[in-house]
Structure formats: structure tokens, C-alpha cells
From TrEMBL:
Keywords: Signal, Transport. Residues 1-22 form the signal peptide. This is Sugar ABC transporter substrate-binding protein. Belongs to the bacterial solute-binding protein 1 family. It comes from Microbispora siamensis.
Length: 431
């Protein structure tokens, strides 16, 4: 999965009138119909998978084959939709009442928004919510809205510092940097002593959050309905990024498709460190400098700022479209795809982190050493605000970050502009 949160999103979208699938109350189909006996369920389930089509999609399709073998009366229409396009594409289809999938692999930050618009079917009391006691609490919370379950957690993730052990060793370091100050020093030493770049940045809002969290900042203060993106703490965090760029500790960022550029440079050994998540494990291990030497691939928690080490909690949920004509089949599909057995298989083959506790101890998961490597980074994961407007907060910030990385602005005015944009999204919130 490539986490690139740059699809256009404006506040007006939140006020769109909901058509056939609901009235915008987030209470579509408030009492789900009693599910049919599994053996009698038939139909076709269209699933929009937003994972990486090359590295992840084939594994999910293997599990689909197992599902169809268990439920021969149900067929799955698998559609891979690029992550960057999926949010807007689903909203357009759901609003029109035509073309929406039965099941969507939904970013955790989209669930509250889609539920508030009436686009999602409530899942409580259906087979989709199976053995909820097994779920890790924070990933499970991402699927809740107004006290109801609209999504069940498929995978969880966060950001870590990924590093090339050999390049760090050549620069004189046996361990990765533990603080943001050390990050700059190590990156500059790698640059001067090895000829490789020290750090590559992904110019995307999600990837700014470890720097902001590290100084005690955040997008918003939900409890007090306050916009905090331009607070002194958030400013201090983004100033660290600005300094990494201007000092040369970070290579000059690509402003277009920066994710791919940073990832490719890391896999090819042209830079020593990047921030990325467990979804990139398979991609990285296929790279030139790691393919024949997987032990060279290091994973560590994001370096700590003056307040803490913190990176955003991410992941994906399975959600069911409220207007689906195949609800019973969709519930069974979600149940199967999200079982501990399926999660363990996904963890073993892709290194993606399960959301069910039993999956972590399953032999298929423990066979992949990357699962254990992500335990420490996950300890620093920060829960994001599960509010309907959450996904819309990324676009103004990424636009500002691009200007900052391109040298068109500096931290303080950039974040003031972002805060002003947030006032148009978060009606009634204070600065």
C-alpha cells in the first residue's frame, strides 16, 4: 500500500445531500436485517481493494479463492482501486447511488466521514463483526461512529524509521538515531562519509505527523474543538523538517510522486533512511540492496522530538456499502477476509500487521520476522481523531508542505494558512 493522502477534498463535500443510500444521519439501516444461513447465501460481492496491486493484491486474491471454495454460491468481483483515488471515487458512486462496491477497503480516517454521510451499513449484529473481543482496541475504535460499528479493522500500521544498516555502519553508527537531533547528525554523516543521501522525505501530510507529534503538536484538539495545527508545538515540529531540508541532511525532496522517489532511492541504496510503514516491507525487501541481504533492512521507532516519539496510527477497515444488494454475502465475505486465520496469512506473506491478537501468535505470522520488528514502532503510535472531517484535513497540509519543500514559504506562514483552511472545514472550531 502506498499511503499518499493527496486526493482533493473540500469541506463542501461533507454537506452533499445523500441520495438513495441514506439521509446523512449516519444511521442508514439502523437495524440490520437478520442474516440468512451462511450455506444458503448466494450472489456476487464486488470488492474494491485499495492495496498495492503488485505486491499485496495477489495475496488478497489468494484468500478470495479460499472464500469462494467455502461459499461456492458466492462469487467475488475483485477490483483494485488506487488508494489515492478511492476516497473520492467511492463518495461519487455512493452519492449517485450507482457503481459503488459492496465492500470497500477503507482507510481508517474515512470511516467516520462515510458513516456520517449515510454511505455505510451498520455492522453490529451481523457476521461481519465476528469475535470482536479479539481486536486490538485502537484499530477497532476507527470503525466506530456515533456508538455503532461501520468498519472492522483489516490491518493496522504506523510509521517507523527504515534504515540501511550497512550505510549507517560505514558512517560510524551501529544503531539508528533515537532523537530528531540525532537524525540530522546521522544523515549528514552518511552524506559526507558514504556519498549516499542521508534521508529521503515523502512530501505528504501523513509523513509530517511524527515531527508534529514529537513536539507535542497535532492537527486538532477534538475535546475542546480547537484547531492546533499552527500551535507553537506544531510549528516546532515542522521547523525540524524545514531544517532537515535546508541543511542538506535530507536530499532535495521530489514534489511530484515523492513517495515513489523516496522509496526507490532507499531500495537502491541511494539514501540510508526513510520514514515508511509496514505496508512497504515486501517492496523494500525486493529492492537491490535488500533482496539478497534482508538483514541489512532495519526498522526502528520514529526518532523522538522534545516531547515524545510519536507516529500516526493508520491502517484499513472493511466497510459495507449501505446500498448493497448483496448484504448477506458481503457480511460473510468480511467475516472470512478478516478472520484471525486470514490475517495471519496476510502477515506472513506481506508483513502487514494484524488487528486481531490471536493472529500475532499464529505460525504463519511468526514466520515473518518483520512482524516482530514492528512491535516497537507500534508502541509509539498515536490515535488519530475519528471525526467525519479527518480525511479533509490532509489536503491543505500537503499543499503547504509542498510549498515548504519547494522553498516557496517557511513554516509559520505555511501553518497559518493551513489553520485558516481548517476553519472552513471545521465549522465552529476555534484557533
Amino acid at each position: 500500500m502506498r499511503r499518499v493522502l493527496t486526493s482533493a477534498a473540500v469541506a463542501a463535500a461533507l454537506a452533499l445531500a445523500v441520495t438513495a443510500c441514506g439521509d446523512g444521519s449516519g444511521d442508514a439501516g439502523s437495524s440490520p436485517a437478520k442474516s440468512a444461513a451462511p450455506a444458503e447465501v448466494s450472489g456476487t460481492v464486488t470488492w474494491w481493494d485499495t492495496s498495492d496491486a503488485t505486491t499485496e493484491g495477489p495475496v488478497f486474491q489468494e484468500i478470495i479463492k479460499d472464500f469462494e471454495a467455502k461459499y461456492p454460491k458466492i462469487k467475488v468481483n475483485y477490483v483494485n482501486v488506487p488508494f489515492a483515488d478511492a476516497r473520492d471515487k467511492f463518495k461519487t458512486a455512493a452519492q449517485s447511488g450507482s457503481g459503488a462496491p459492496d465492500v470497500l477497503r477503507t482507510d481508517v480516517g474515512w470511516v467516520a466521514e462515510f458513516a456520517s454521510l449515510g454511505y455505510l451499513a451498520p455492522l453490529d449484529g451481523t457476521p461481519a463483526v465476528d469475535k470482536p473481543e479479539e481486536f486490538l482496541p485502537v484499530p477497532a475504535a476507527s470503525g466506530k461512529y456515533n456508538g455503532k460499528t461501520y468498519g472492522v479493522p483489516q490491518v493496522t500500521d504506523t510509521l517507523g524509521l527504515l534504515y540501511n544498516k550497512e550505510l549507517l555502519k560505514k558512517a560510524g553508527y551501529d544503531e539508528p538515531p533515537a532523537t530528531m537531533a540525532d537524525l540530522k547528525k546521522v544523515a549528514l554523516d552518511v552524506k559526507s562519509k558514504t556519498g549516499a543521501g542521508g534521508l529521503a522525505l515523502n512530501v505528504d501530510a501523513y509523513f509530517l505527523l511524527p515531527f508534529i507529534y514529537g513536539e507535542g503538536g497535532d492537527f486538532v484538539d477534538v475535546q475542546n474543538k480547537k484547531i492546533t495545527i499552527s500551535s507553537p508545538q506544531s510549528v516546532a515540529g515542522v521547523k525540524i523538517v524545514e531544517d532537515l531540508i535546508t541543511s542538506g541532511a535530507a536530499v532535495k525532496p521530489a514534489l511530484q510522486d515523492s513517495y515513489t522517489n523516496a522509496e526507490t532511492a532507499f531500495k537502491d541504496g541511494k539514501v540510508a533512511m526513510i520514514f515508511n510503514g509496514p505496508w512497504s516491507n515486501a517492496d523494500n525487501l525486493g529492492g537491490k540492496v535488500f533482496k539478497d541481504n534482508p538483514d541489512n533492512f532495519g526498522v526502528a521507532p520514529v526518532p523522538a522530538g522534545s516531547a515524545k516519539a510519536g507516529s500516526p496510527l493508520g491502517g484499513h477497515d472493511y466497510t459495507v456499502y449501505a446500498g448493497s444488494k448483496n448484504l448477506d454475502a458481503s457480511y460473510l465475505f468480511v467475516q472470512f477476509m478478516d478472520s484471525a486465520e486470514s490475517q495471519a496469512k496476510i502477515a506472513g506473506k506481506l508483513g502487514l500487521l494484524p488487528t486481531r491478537q490471536p493472529a500475532y501468535s499464529a505460525s504463519e505470522a511468526t514466520a515473518n520476522p518483520k512482524i516482530a520488528q514492528w512491535a516497537k514502532p507500534m508502541e509509539t503510535a498515536v490515535e488519530r481523531p475519528w471525526i467525519p472531517e479527518a480525511a479533509s484535513l490532509f489536503q491543505p497540509l500537503v499543499e503547504g508542505y509542498q510549498k515548504l519543500a519547494g522553498g516557496q514559504t517557511t513554516t509559520e506562514p505555511m501553518l497559518k494558512d493551513v489553520a485558516t483552511a481548517y476553519q472552513g472545514i471545521l465549522k465552529g472550531w476555534s484557533l
